[in-house]
Amino acid sequence: MISRRTFIAKAATGTALVALPFAFSKGRGAESLVSPKVLRRALAALERHGESISHRDVMGIADFSLPSNAPRFHLFYPADGRVRSHWVAHGRGSDPEHTGWLERFSNEPHSFATSAGAFRTDRIYVGEHGPSMRLEGLDSTNSNAASRAIVVHGAWYVSAAIAKERGILGRSEGCFAMAEASIGDVLATLGSGRLIYADKA
């Protein structure tokens, strides 16, 4: 089991934790990979928005407490605590100096920033970034997600190799931009009617 301290230390140096496009933890591993505060808020959001969420077997948690070179998008199974973690970029408006750390969230149009809060996954489609998933913002902090075209999509500038070699991922325009090696797994696992929660400790 990788401790959170070791996880962050390795991430800060740009060292890939695994050769796969995701990191995997089992059982009580969620708190080793996800900030306990973010995890608690995510579970609270699942309860708060229960009527809007059709499927509660798995959820996505984007823990932006971590730098972009760490796998910080977690597919979390509440029933048994399993976690499968992928790399994800944040918006360039959230990190103007491109330090690799998310500095601020925004729900404003044209901010090119990542929004915090609970999202409901919607339909999968094929667009300019290939297979992608539309999102509906459920909170006041991300209510403009649909009109801002905030989606989950694959991106060339997100990968374990880039995280290791450059120590920093590229930035999106506010979307959850995933590694091209990960996008199939993320879309197939979440599908429509599940919750994605984004926040930082």
Key features of this structure:
L,D-transpeptidase catalytic domain-like; alpha+beta; ten-stranded mixed beta sheet; 5 helices; disordered N terminus; 201 residues
Output the CATH class name: Mainly Beta
Give the overall average pLDDT. 88
- In the CATH hierarchy, what is the architecture at level 2? Beta Barrel
Largest beta-sheet details: 10 strands, mixed
Description:
By secondary structure, the chain is α+β, with helices and mostly antiparallel strands. It has 5 helices and 10 strands. The chain has helices spanning 4-12, 30-33, 36-48, 160-166, 183-190; strands at residues 22-25, 59-63, 73-77, 82-86, 88-89, 117-127, 130-137, 151-155, 176-179, 195-199. The radius of gyration is 15 Å and the shape is globular. The model is unreliable at 1-22 and 24-28 (pLDDT under 50).
